[in-house]
Amino acid sequence: MLISFHDLLIRLLFIIDFVLNTVFRVFVFAYYIFSKLIHQVFNVNMVENNKKLKRNPIGKPNQTIVKRGVIDANWQKLMHLTTFMDKKSEKKEDTDKKESFKGTFRRDRKKKSNQQNNVANNMKTLKLNNKLTELDNDEVDNVKEETRKDKKNKLTKFIAMDCEMVGIGYNGDDHMIARVSLVNKFGDCIYDKFVKPREEVVDYRTSISGVRKEDLLNGEDFIIVQKEVSEILKGRIVVGHSLKTDLSVLFLSHPKKCIRDTSKYKPFRKITKGSTPSLKRLAKEILGIDIQHGEHSSVEDARATMQLYCTVGKTWEQALSEKRGYSRKFVET
Predict the structure, then answer these.
(1) pTM of the prediction?
(2) Counting C-beta atoms within 10 Å of the first and last residue's C-beta, which end of the chain has fewer, N or C?
(3) Residue 73 and residue 186 in contact, taking contact as beta carbons nearer than 8 Å
C-alpha cells in the first residue's frame, strides 16, 4: 500500500524531533564539561591545595599545625616575647664576660690587661649615664606591661561566637538559648553569660550543653543579653561554626559579608567529602587538639573556631575579595 502524505509528514516530524533531542543533549553535555574546565582553571584560589595533606600519614595530624600546640599556648606566646628578648641580651652579656687571653707571651697579656683596666677606669665616670639608661629601660618595660594589660579582653575586628541551647516544646526538639560566649581574636573571653528561660525547659541537655537548672535561674534576662550581644557584634566580623542556628536562637541578624562560618568553608568541607564537618573533627585534624569531651564549653568552642579561622584567614579573605571583583594586588598597585 502506498503511504499517504499525512503519514509521511508525521514520520518526518518524529525524525526531526529525534535529531533535535540528540543535538540538544550533546550540546548540554559539552557545556557541562566546558563549564567544569573553566571552573577549575579560573577558581584555583577558591580551593585549598591538598598536597600538604597527602604528604602526612593518615593517622598523624599536620606537623606544621601540631607545632602550634594547644590554643591557649599559642596566644600566651605573644605575652612572653619580651622575656625571650631579655634572655637573649643576658646570654650576650655572659659571652662578653668570658674573655680569655689569646696572646702567647706574657708581655702581650699584660698590655691587654692594662688596656682593659684603663677602659674600666674611664667607664666609672659614666655610671650616672648608665643609671639613667637603666631607668629609661625600666620605664619602657612598665609601659609595655601596661599596654598589654590594656589590650587584654578588648574588642577586636573579628569576634568568635558560640551558644549552648536547651530543648523546649514537644519532646524538647525545639531550641532555646541558654548560654552565649564571645571571644576576641587573641582568644580572650570578652562575654560569657547564661540566659534565663522564657519557656518551660523540657530537656536541659546537660550531657552535651553542660547547662543545669540553677545556671539558668541565676542567668541574665534574654532582652538584656540580646541587646548586649548585638552591640558587640555591630560593625564587626563574626566567626563561628553553624552561625545560622546561633543567630536565630538570639533572634539576631548579621550582614552576610561580615560572617565567617567554618562549617561552610569549602576547603574544610573537603575533609568530610562535601558534607558539613563537625567542629570536633576540624579541631582534631587541622589544629591537632581534642575538644568536646563530655559536656561542651561554649568558650572552648569559640576559641577553637577563632583558631581555625586564623590558620586560613589570609587565603579566606583573599578568596572573598576576588569573588567580589577585586584583588589585593590590584588595590595596592
Answers:
(1) 0.54
(2) N
(3) no
